[in-house]
Amino acid sequence: MGLVALDVGVDTTSPQGAAMAQVLAVFAELERRLIGERTKAALAVKRAQGVRLGREATLPTAVRKRILRRHRDGAGWSQIARELNEAGVPTSQGGRQWHPATVRYVVIGNERGRSK
After folding, report:
1. Band of the pLDDT at 94, cuts 50, 70, 90?
2. Domain boundaries, the chain
3. If both were cysteines, with which of 1, 81, 93, 108 could 98 make a disulfide (CB 3.0 to 4.6 Å apart)?
4. In the prediction, which pLDDT does 27 show?
């Protein structure tokens, strides 16, 4: 079974077509890596300029402090999520369901100096 790429005219059922498809794949991978490097470099420049990257934190300070306090008191991620759900506390995006991973993200983000 072969692959026929109509937009580049490569028929992989022939030896020449198969070789050409491999060459195209190699250059596609190269381009993906180059894009990643350029993106990483551009983001580093923006960070060095003090530009805040990502969306703004929307979690109210009181909720963030509540999560951090419960974590300091020894409550686990699941327990904190359950308490927030039982209290009807909306998530940062206005959702109804807190998950342990979301609670963990708030704590880890705070430890890294972010106000998520």
Report:
1. confident
2. 4-48, 61-111
3. 81
4. 93
